[in-house]
Amino acid sequence: MTERKRWDLTFETWIERQIRVAQDRGDFDDLPGYGKPIPDHGDDELWWVKSYLAREGLSTEALLPPELQLRREIERLPDTVGSAPSEKVVREIVSDLNRRIADCLRFPSGLPVPIHKVDTEEMVEVWRVERARRREEARTALNSTRPRLETESETGVARRRWIFRWFRRRNRPVVREG
């Protein structure tokens, strides 16, 4: 805790003395940016917002109004539901988005942005198509990595086997019971 200011000192002298004592103790030696020049941000008025977002690892999308954030989320929705593990998860994602859209439509922020609810069944269909496409890609990737074996029909072996079976059946003696 700092000592109280004496009555005969001005505030400026008292503060300067506290800063000098702290410097002598080394309180300012391990501060980030110590010994570096102050960064020049030019004429950018939002430099502090941009540096905060970069430091916190946030995107600039957080600065947008809620309506525009929802529009961007609707645009990215097919990619989002395409990676969902089940239809139930897809329905939960879409219902959550529709709930937030309804809240935004009930209490607009003043920005007239056309926004609409998302059709759940349409997104489920998008998910099914995407899942089928991914399965097909995985299947073709698996087949392309396996060594290709010739099938019997390509070598003519199957045709010859059929002919041999036909001759064997034809030449078999008929056994009659009775």
From TrEMBL:
This is DUF1992 domain-containing protein. It comes from the Bacteria. It comes from Rhodococcus rhodochrous. Residues 14-80 form the DnaJ homologue subfamily C member 28 conserved domain.
